[in-house]
Structure formats: structure tokens, C-alpha cells
Amino acid sequence: MIRVALLSKWHVHAKDYAHEASEIGNIHIKVVWDNDRDRGSEWASELGIPFEADLVSVLEHPEIDAVIVSTATNLHKEIILAAAKHKKHIFTEKVLAFTVQDCNEIYQVVKENQVELMVSLPRLKDDYYLYAQDIVDQGLLGDLNTIRCRVAHNGAVSQDDHPNGWLPSHFFNKEECGGGALIDLGAHPIYLTNRLAGPLKSVMGQLQQTKGFEVDDNAVAIVEYESGAVGILETSFISNGSPFQLELYGTEGTLMIEDRTIRLKSRQYGEDWVTPKELPRPDETPMEQWVKAIIHEAAPRILESDVIALTMVNEAAKISHEQNRRVFVKELSNYIKNA
Description:
The chain is 34% helix and 23% strand. The protein has helices at residues 14-23, 37-47, 55-60, 76-85, 100-112, 127-138, 174-177, 187-197, 286-296, 304-323, 332-338, and strands spanning 2-7, 27-33, 66-69, 89-92, 117-119, 144-152, 200-208, 218-225, 230-236, 245-250, 253-258, 261-266, 327-328. α4 runs parallel beside α5 (100-112).
């Protein structure tokens, strides 16, 4: 049994993680900590478990084996490093950290203390992604040249009961979040496209502040991969009714995914569009993979390289937008050192 502390209800997915943890037979939630005492106390009361205001007390407690981190993103590095140094396994909301340098430092400490770190990149388990990856691996699209992926919603659009949209106001706090739509919702098109296209080469970012927030609410990143493929990654907090879209274009074919509608055209299949009769079985969730890694030492399918590449695109896109130029990912460590 993995005895877990919930660290903060700041993120909108915190309740989802608590619910999933309570449904997994190998996890027992023991305590809640939150840097917002009122928020944490209320949540602990809802869950029927104790609230602890002192993070060190939580991490030093011998009956806590692991933590689920749903804090503001700017607290990730400090809290995850502290948890790892106290030999606690860590499950955390994306992104891991704001810079590649910080991510590397976190992984170094995690490895030194021999704990399991899982970052929630949930769409890597989904059947449509697994189908797309299989199509690419089979060569049915030939050489990939373009991938377009869009994940967007209307969370920052004014509504009668929510004048600034249904997202919590702190999602527009630049200090806490490090950004807006791209670093949060845009994570999904980033890590999906990275997986399908391979190693990164350069990034251009356009991060719009359409509604006057201090962070972007509508964003596009154009990513060049070492293979020569181009990724067009789109996200938004101000798009009503926008479907999920994943489009792959190659020298031998095209794969179009829009929500649950999937079409494939490949020269190997002739000139007609083909609809798959069945999709691969979804993989285990990030939390399920984390639990198996802790208990059975099973290798997770969500990898350190996925996590680093996600931060790499976000970091490069931010620099690109601020400096109005294309950013090569090999610059990032030098940029950090000279900043």
C-alpha cells in the first residue's frame, strides 16, 4: 500500500487526481497539505482526512511514502526537490518546471534518492495517439513532413456566472503559472507532437494576450524537428466549441483525427480514405504507471525525455515570443547561464 499526501488543491486537476488515487487499490490518501490553509483545510474536510499546515512535517512523516503535487507551477521545483530528498515518490501535474535546467536538476535528485517521479501527460495513453504512433511506425505515411495538433477551450471567455471565464483566476497569474494557454493546455499538443516527430531542433512562438490577461490566452508554436518535419501546435483559452485535432502529413499518406473521427489515406491502401475498424487498447493512466513503477519496478511508458522535451518547447517558445526570433533548442542551456 502506497501512503500518499496530497500537496495542494491549487490546480483544477487536483480533485481528479485525488479521485483516481482513491479508486486505485494500492493507494491510501493520508493527509492534505496546502500553502493556502483555508483551501487545504476545506479540502481535507471534504475528503475526511487530516490537514497539515507544515510541509516539512508531512515530508518527514514516516507513514508517508509518496506525494501528489498539484501546487502552483512556480512551486514545483522547490516542493519536488524537497519530496525527493525525503525519499518520497512523486506524482505531479505538468509541467515539471519552467526551464530545462531546472528539470535536469530535479531528475538528478530524483535518481540520487531512488524515488519514482511521474509527470501527468495523460493523452499518451489514449487510443487515438497509440493508433497514430502505430501508423507512423508502420511507415504508412512515409516520411512525415507536417503535424498539426490543436487543443483549445473557452475557459477564459466571459459567461454570466463567470465574468472572466470558468478557469480559476490564478490560472492567469504569471508568477504562479509561468505563462498561460501554451504552458497549460498547450502541453497536450506539445508532448503528442514531440512523440510522433522525434528530437527537437528549433521553435518559434506567438503568445497572444487577447483578453488583456498578464499571460497568453491564445498561442501557436511552430516547431522544427531534427527529421525535417514541422509541428504546428495550437492552443487557446478563448475558443468555443473547438474540437481536438491531430493531423499528420507525409510523403505516402495523411492521417486526420478530429475528436473521435479518424480517417487514413495511404498509397499502400489505394486512393480512398480508410476508417479504422478498431483502435488499440488504451494504455494505463500516468498514475497507474506510477503505482506499478513503485510497487513492481515496472518501467513506465511516460519517459523523462517526454517531460524534458515538453519544457524545452515551452521555454523556447517564450524566448522566441519575447525576442521575436526563431530559437534553437541547443541555445537553452547557454541562455539560462547568461540570463
